[in-house]
Amino acid sequence: GGASCGGIRGITQRRLLPQAGGCESGCLMCKGRLFPYTVLLAYCNFAKASPPAAPHRLLATSSAFSSTSGMASCSTRMSRCRGIMAKMTFSEGEDLMELASCVIPPLTTGQSKGGAGRVAVIGGSEEYTGAPYFAAFSALKTGVDLAHVFCEKSAGTAIKSYSPELIVHPLLALKSSGADPTEVEQGVSQWIPRLDGLLVGPGLGRDELVVQTSASLITAAAERGTPIVLDADGLFILTSAVRSGGGDAVYARLLEALRGAPLTITPNKVEFERLCKAMGLAEEGAFGRAPSLAPVVATRLGRHTVVVVKGPSDVITDGSITVTCSEGGSPRRCGGQGDVLAGMLLAFRTWAHAAAAEE
């Protein structure tokens, strides 16, 4: 983060957001356009959220989300958030800060390691080792305690070298390796019950076995009610599943599991148009109709789905509430921006899910 705002870690410690324009240095982590819809996404699904089938570990093992002295109870904070959402235009920093305070867990001396979230990124291939790093590290900088990366074997050493804070598991295998698909899946799936949030896609690649394994892992997480963010090649998997029309057993199970899962997807123009075409909503020009089509996409995918269509004006919707965010930010479109955003959303969606479950 830039010197003028203290970076993302400072945000979670102070429970504040920088001004909408971002820090003066314009650093990647502090680009102003990330904050408005990151905070919105964290809240956007509260109205329809329901507690997970099993007790959420964030609530069961720590006091990260318990009320503290001078702080309103979670239920009161959630009610206040709904009131803010009903009237805000996302142009006022105070509204954003109050909304963020509803989901960012307070720092207390009673927390244990992992109390503010244990998340994972499934991604990383020989060609793309930076994407999962940016995603996982931005989740850490946003404020989660632990971040895992499950990557293809050839990417493991490079990703490990980027940061000692990441827990890297080089367990994914290419089809050409001759690895047993069942063994590969089991190697990763054993970690799913320990996670509070899962991001799939950054740098993942489209190898047949990697895609098959990732689809099964998304299903396993969704069936447990784990918050899921799909970005990049994770959206390729989702679009492929929709396009299959239920003809593929793995994809059919995935779509069924996602209908009840807390899901966030982050398509850009090309990804959104591909998804809309697969759904039969529009053959072309879907991006220009995002404000009307995105709610339909969210509703069709599931009752707890949030869609973020990234563009000059970002469209954020859960199917019932739709907000268009035209907040200014850096005009640069460099590699890694989407990965940083996805990691931040993973943190906020994880916190939001836990806060809603507590309520």
From TrEMBL:
Pfam families membership: Carb_kinase
Sorted UniProt keywords: ATP-binding, Lyase, NAD, NADP, Nucleotide-binding
Keyword 4Fe-4S (UniProt): no
GO biological process: metabolite repair
Domain YjeF C-terminal: start-end pairs: 96-359
UniProt keyword annotation of Heme present: no
Protein name (database record): YjeF C-terminal domain-containing protein
InterPro entries: Carbohydrate_kinase_pred_CS, CARKD, Ribokinase-like
Bilayer-crossing regions: none
A GO term, aspect molecular function: ATP-dependent NAD(P)H-hydrate dehydratase activity
HAMAP family tied to this protein: NADHX_dehydratase
